[in-house]
Design goal:
The structure is a single chain. This protein has 258 residues and is mainly alpha-helical. Strands 1-2 form a two-stranded antiparallel ribbon. A hairpin with a 2-residue loop joins strand 1 and strand 2. Helix 7 packs parallel to helix 9 and helix 10 packs across helix 11. The longest helix is centred in the first third of the chain and has 16 residues. The termini are far apart. The model has no long low-confidence stretch (mean pLDDT 93).
Amino acid sequence: MPKYDKLKFKVDKYDGEQYGSFIWGKGRDKVFDQFYNAIEISDPDKYLSELDTIIKEDPEFIDAYNSIGWFEIDIKNYGSAFAVFSEAYEIGRKLIPSDFKGKILWAELDNRPFLRTMHGLGLTYLFLQEWERASDIFVKLLNYNPNDNQGVRAMAIHSYLAQGKFKKVLSICKNFPEDVLPDTLYGVVLANYRLDKIQQAEKALKDAIKFSPKVARELTKKSHKKPKSVLPDSLSIGGDDEAYDYWERLGLFWTDPK
């Protein structure tokens, strides 16, 4: 079995702020090539087999776990996805000092495997309706990477809505004042309404309709038909598919007749 450098975590300080970076070391060129070849395999059994081989060769290769986890999510096998993402998360988490309060930025390429792991773990909590655990991991991820290149703010809002923590929803949305994701635009509306801040809700609704009118139309339909996406596995900004996706995920929170 090939020998690889142990995965490490380095903490630097800039202007009084901590910044963490995962250090993968040298000698992983071959396993990276194996991984990139593996994710191009279309046969599911061969795909999973190759990823398992990579993990056996390099048990710290987090992205191989991530790929298995996303595969399990795609087939709605959320329990297995949770197990895989949890194992990957522990690989990275145990390297981070317990007193670390800084950033782990997406801009650092070597941080991305661990950030993807956190995303996947949070998403499995969401699918398993473990709302509090989901919000905990998403907020932790947002603290690590405040720019939120992964769009986890939408999932944090979802998990807080499910818990009825509407002030928390507003807190998330406040950090993204220029955001045009339906989750933040309409999250402000719903949270204010639930907090009986009707004037604020009405103002936020006007803004939401301005940027995403199709979402409002979808929410008020009596029946819903899934539209065709412009591109497979993607959503068109402001499109019918985006509106349907929002209703499918969060429409249950909009069932109050008022």
